[in-house]
């Protein structure tokens, strides 16, 4: 699902890591980079995917990854951690161990971009369905060109969602449904954690 329209944020406190990851991603994605925590927080909203070092902090000392975890974009973030950092913050599903290798990086970014597209399509689906409902409530849906246009686009969105979901695995589904509680991200439980 790589493409020039997808933006990836690479943010880490080590400039060499940022440069290396950017070089691998630049061919397929628009890449925004920073080694500044405050700048990372300002750039993440416009990114389709984010790779964030677990040690990157804001000027006030906040852990950037933890700040992003509390946003709706948390499912499109992967944490970059060194092997000795056993308990990285925050506890999100996707992480990459430094030094990061090209193949796992590209696979992870593709996964994150697909999740971002899924979220976009769900939001569009909700809007279209509400607009279609408003037309239906007026009682003129049968002869209404606006209704037909909405229905056609809604069908296109459903088709794209179906195709996208076919590429999902268990991690993708856990990430997609981790934000079901009123838009607040939460860490999904594994099956072994249930009583």
From TrEMBL:
<dbReference type="Pfam" id="PF08663">
    <property type="entry name" value="HalX"/>
</dbReference>
<dbReference type="InterPro" id="IPR001789">
    <property type="entry name" value="Sig_transdc_resp-reg_receiver"/>
</dbReference>
<dbReference type="InterPro" id="IPR011006">
    <property type="entry name" value="CheY-like_superfamily"/>
</dbReference>
<dbReference type="InterPro" id="IPR013971">
    <property type="entry name" value="HalX_domain"/>
</dbReference>
<protein>
    <submittedName>
        <fullName>HalX domain-containing protein</fullName>
    </submittedName>
</protein>
<dbReference type="GO" id="GO:0000160">
    <property type="term" value="P:phosphorelay signal transduction system"/>
</dbReference>
<feature type="domain" description="Response regulatory">
    <location>
        <begin position="7"/>
        <end position="113"/>
    </location>
</feature>
């Amino acid at each position: 699902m790589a493409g020039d329209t997808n933006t990836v944020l690479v943010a880490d406190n080590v400039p060499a890591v940022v440069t290396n990851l950017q070089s691998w991603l630049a061919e397929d994605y628009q890449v925004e980079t920073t080694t500044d925590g405050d700048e990372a927080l300002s750039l993440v909203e416009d990114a389709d995917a984010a790779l964030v070092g677990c040690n990157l902090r804001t000027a006030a000392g906040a852990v950037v990854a933890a700040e992003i975890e509390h946003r709706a974009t948390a499912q499109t973030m992967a944490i970059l951690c060194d092997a000795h950092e056993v308990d990285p913050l925050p506890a999100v599903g996707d992480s990459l161990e430094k030094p990061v290798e090209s193949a796992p990086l590209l696979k992870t970014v593709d996964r994150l971009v697909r999740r971002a597209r899924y979220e976009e399509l769900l939001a569009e689906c909700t809007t279209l369905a509400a607009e279609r409902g408003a037309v239906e409530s007026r009682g003129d849906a049968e002869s209404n060109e606006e209704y037909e246009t909405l229905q056609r686009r809604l069908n296109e969105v459903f088709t794209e969602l179906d195709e996208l979901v076919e590429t999902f695995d268990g991690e993708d589904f856990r990430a997609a449904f981790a934000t079901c509680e009123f838009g607040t991200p939460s860490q999904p439980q594994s099956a072994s954690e249930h009583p």
